[in-house]
């Protein structure tokens, strides 16, 4: 039986759709073209897809995160409510995915790798060819004639060609009066493009380096001839509206039609970024981009290619594929030259993907003389320990607590987020720095780390994370959600509600940081060296850009190593993709890295649980591991 | 400005369409979904797209083949008439493309080549693999796991895989509980199919051999395991409605959108034949066909692949490509397994295509001890002279006269066509055999050859093809189109009109036969041997099946060689495709044939014109070349 569902959105506009009994409200909304965010991927866990039933009824399969009053007032989770009759639905304003991203850059701020030599290093090249004209004494077919010219004039043999390009060859040869420019991919031995006439050897040949982060997608537009990065653009991954972390995305993708939707969402993001990057550079057009190198975690790469990712999430955590064959842009769906070479960099395991192999390359870890720790804490935490001699890696399911999820007043690092906190050790009054400088709306990852450290050092929290309710300040209290510390009073905040951190939040954060620290411990144990002997810590990912190492050490998230041994490298993944895009030796090194990396599955590792439990304290059960924190606590 | 055009078809139904000024009536009809045949490809040459303007006016760019009375009565050529205002158009009944084709066969009437050994000869094979199951100690990705099994259990390495198949692998492995059947193409080193579970080694593995004739498309369904042909089906090429010969087709294809239409027309024909073939064999389904070998002339192969064919028609007659890379069915548009290997056999030149290389293979010419002549007279005439030692070839633009085109009462070899004629040498009265046995409607190719020979032998025609109007019979007369011989009076014919052959028709037929005979002469001259020394004549193509050698020799179409040295092989092209489909050595031989064939371009050959002019007589200027005909003439 069919039912009519009418959605009214925050701007007052309405859209109606007819759906049969049993369809979820979230799907009905999608069919009606009404956007409802599902940050948990439609699992009914986050409560952020709540809508209000104004007329009619729906069957609520779950009301998690809704109070009885909410339900009485008609609230329902769109992803958990089944259509069983006509209904009018009010859709509240959806959280905007705003940007606290690097501003788009056109200037070449990235150094071209020293000694980059297009002719020697690049797999894609453009050659100009002068063909003999056919006549009655030489009726050689066009394709053979072109192949002969490639062989004799450029030493290129046995090229393959796609049917769509083959269809154009005759016209191009004649349009160019038998002088043509061919773009050839020597790695795949494939003809990529054929254009009429002569092209200057200095003319740019365009490529893109792409990093698909779970949260942010970055695109660098690169002139493969000079090696220069000509534009850098970034944007939130369009999949965010269907899940904030990889697990939620996999769940959403595994549902009917979800794979196609996830694929098209990330393709839309990438394609619009490519277009934006090209607009910033005179003469660059998406259709002229002949090569793309793509990095990202294993889930992101699977979803990009439309390969089912369900087995990544389930024991024993298997990817469909780690080493992806080179494809062309047409197959992948990138809106660049349809014959463009698309090189998805190799991953190692379900939770150690191409972002890490690329990151290891760009951080130089695989060429380090000293034992080095490489950390990429994004939505997940991946760790590599190694040097020129060895590489061991693991992934910590830290959860998205440091991205603001699973924390009552957590939020992403956008305008209004508290990004740093200082607490007065006598009055217990906090001072906050807010992104954008306005009134605060919540706490982002760096703010949470800073807050946790300050609470611990000032005694608001004890080692175990308990809130000391006996302190002489109204900021510590028994709140609705248990013991909490109020960071900002309602009078100071954007929406008039107090911003606090609860005991439950602290527990979530402890779990996240303990998972990461336990990862370090397991890796160090595995190679038989104490963590303190690590000579260098390289931090990749946007996370590293904003956190305060001192605070991160104080809560026991990072090992207690001298600060000058930490280096923050920013987005090592996109930089690795850029190096792989430019240089075939670098690209080979990424394969070598993937090949030689030993992956340790923490969930199957006996020592992990102990290490995790020991790290569930501030900063750790074993204070000897954190001498600098011990010293700070003992200061008068 | 837009105009409304209403078409009324023979069945009384009407369809309207709105088109702007300047659109051709033929295109307007197409947009309205009304079928109007254009046998000459829309060149305004054949007059068979004539329609009647009942209301309004059109601008006639050409009225070729329409009389002044026709034009007064509103007749116009749809392909030459421009819309300039509203109009009502009457579309007469369109000629049905009926069949005089081999009936579909299910029984295996084709002998499997002696010694066919699937395991050794076939490039495509199915292997069953048992994979180890992943677990926490072995988290190898699905694709690597499958590759390992292929290497260890079947010795197959470095396979490539398409993205669509890659997407299915994880599900298939799990559905089959880690036992799977893989179909692998060893020639292209590609995974073609992966199915869950174990498959019996005797289970058929399906392939198709396809011959795309200009007139007829043939499909053989083959079990690659046993080598048996399990069904043979054939049908007119759907492109016929847009041109009867290759030149008309190229012209039509070169017009706006024509390429896509030509491609989809022949694909429709092939795909429906494949479906028909599968319906005849229990358990066979198009989706299970994993390999196709396709033969056809160069124009047919270009049009199938959507590759522009315009340069084939224009001096210096260049194909876009002779040696086609192997593709998959998805790219080509064949509705078989989308990953199925599609192997278009190689051609040699614009007018010596894969049908000839395949024909040479299946005729065994390239392995003949004696000098052999191979002729394939279809819509064009291709000739190969050679043996194990050498192969020379040429193409004669004989034109479609022997297919009934360009002859006043010519028609295709369908029901109602006169296929054989005998003339009484005293009364000059003819006796005719009609296909189907009913009243005659016209003359088909074999009928024309027979008629020409009889007219010559009885003196109705002289050596130069002049009609002897002085004979004492009303059948020779000065007709509307010049001197003619009446083969059937209106009282005996299907449509009540006399069926005659005119002096103009005779000239067209002389030109056609002279072109072919001149081709023989040039090849023989080229290798320095008299044509009479040819030890064997192999005739391929459907043409050979119906003609009478004696008659063909009498008109000088075939060389005067003892009849027992002629062999009629039927469709050598589809048989060559079948051999290439089955056996990789045979397939290699086709490449070798293409490589070693010397192509002689007759239009650039100085001796061709002389040879042609000498052959413009019945049977030839030099009667010494036709001793058996000379003897017949001298009989009392």
Question: Topology of this protein?
Answer:
The structure is a homodimer of 636-residue chains.
Chain A: E1 2-8, E2 14-20, H1 25-32, E3 50-60, H2 68-72, E4 75-77, E5 81-90, H3 118-121, E6 124-130, H4 142-154, H5 163-175, E7 179-185, E8 190-196, E9 206-212, E10 216-223, E11 229-236, H6 246-254, H7 258-279, E12 289-296, H8 298-305, H9 310-313, E13 327-328, H10 329-332, E14 341-344, H11 354-363, E15 372-377, E16 381-386, E17 391-396, E18 417-423, E19 430-434, E20 442-443, H12 445-457, E21 476-479, E22 482-488, E23 499-502, H13 503-527, E24 536-540, H14 541-546, H15 549-554, E25 566-570, H16 572-582, H17 584-596, E26 597-599, H18 606-614, H19 627-634
Please name the CATH architecture of the largest domain in chain A.
2-Layer Sandwich
Distance between the termini of chain A: 74 Å
Most extensive chain interface and residues per partner? A-B, 46 and 46 residues
Strand order of the largest sheet of chain A: 11-10-9-12-14-13
Low-confidence stretches of chain A: 97-103
How many extended strands of chain A? 26
| Percent range for β-strand residues of chain A | 15-25%
The top-level CATH class of the largest domain in chain A is: Alpha Beta
**How many DSSP helices of chain A?**
19
CATH homologous superfamily grouping of the largest domain in chain A = Domain of unknown function (DUF4445)
User: How many whole angstroms does the radius of gyration of chain A measure?
Assistant: 27 Å
State the major sheet of chain A. Answer: 6 strands, mixed
CATH topology of the largest domain in chain A: Nucleotidyltransferase, domain 5
* Structural domain tally of chain A: 4
Average residue-wise pLDDT of chain A: 92
Helix coverage percent of residues of chain A? 25-40%
Question: What's the quaternary structure here?
Answer: homodimer
Shape of chain A: globular
Indicate the structural class of chain A: alpha/beta
